[in-house]
Every structure is written in structure tokens, then in C-alpha cells.
Amino acid sequence: MAVHSLAEMKSYAAQAGFSGTLPAIMAAIGDAESSGRDDVVNAIGCVGIWQINQPAWKSSHPEWTVEWLKNPANNAAAAYAVYQAQGLKAWTTYTSGEYKKYLSQATAADINLGDLNPIQAGKDAAGAIRDTDSLSTLATIVTNLFDPKRWIRIAYVLAGIACILVALANMTASSKTLKTAVKIAEVVPKP
Known about the structure:
The chain is an all-alpha fold. The protein folds into two domains: 6-146; 148-191. The protein is built from nine helices and two strands. The chain has helices at residues 6-16, 22-34, 54-57, 66-70, 72-86, 92-95, 100-108, 134-145, 148-187; strands at residues 46-47, 52-53. A hairpin with a 4-residue loop joins β1 (46-47) and β2.
């Protein structure tokens, strides 16, 4: 059993294809549904962080076994499929509003994909990479790229780089001026 942080759940949701504010909402739903535990199986067969109803989906998704759904990356991928089919109302903690008590923390949680171990990041125990939809990953990247909050951060980074370049140019110019002054001083006869 592993208990996953809001940042980890947010990362899984983003990797699965959720974009914009949805990774934070899904992390909050995951905390409300399972307290972030990947091994939870309830009495009616809902499995994992996002409590995917395995019996209800097994005919259309036979690969969604209980063990497969216990992998958090797989559970996030299944949650994305459920979301595409039914929307957020598929989760009772969303419709009841219970997820809201975790939402502000989930929104503030930073995604750090490097913190996820290979099994959690979507590799099975044999080390084979799970089949992912690269187009949804690309769509997530593009969507995040056009997020206005990210552009503000990018603007700050670019302004910082510009300041560094101006400082380096000034240092180079000052160095040339100093060298010229030294050469003039060497040429001028001393009294």
C-alpha cells in the first residue's frame, strides 16, 4: 500500500490527460475518495485512488483488473476514460462537494514528475512502459503552454535572462574601457 500526496495525484492526473484546473480537481477527488491510497477496494469493487468501479467497467475494459487499477498511473488513465464518458459527476465526492475541502491544497501542490518512481510513473514490474496516448500527453503540454499563469512565469524568467545579458554586456564594456585606460596610461610619459 502506498499513500500518495496531492502533488503526486495531480501529476498522475496530468500524465493521464487531465489539463487546466482538472489535475488539481482530480487530486482533491482522489484524496476525498481514497485518502490517496492506491490499494483501496471498497465493498462494491471500486478500486484505487479514484475508486474506479471495476465490475461496472470490466466488460468494456477487460484490462482494468483489480491489480491493474491499483497501479496509480493506470488508475489515473482509467479515471480519465471515466471522465471522458461521464464527466466529473462520476465521482460522488465531486457531486457531494466533499472534494472541495482538499481543493485549495491540491491547487497549491506543485507537480514534480521526477519524484515519481518508474513503477508509479507508468512502468509495470517487468519494466515495460505501459501503453500511453502520446497525443493526449502532447495536448496536455500544449494546453499548459497556453495557460496565462505559466506565461507570467515565463515572462519573469525571460526578464531575468535579459537582466543577466545586460549585466554581462556592461561588464564587457567596462573591461574594454579599463583596458583602453591602462593602455593610454602606459603611453603617456611619466613626469
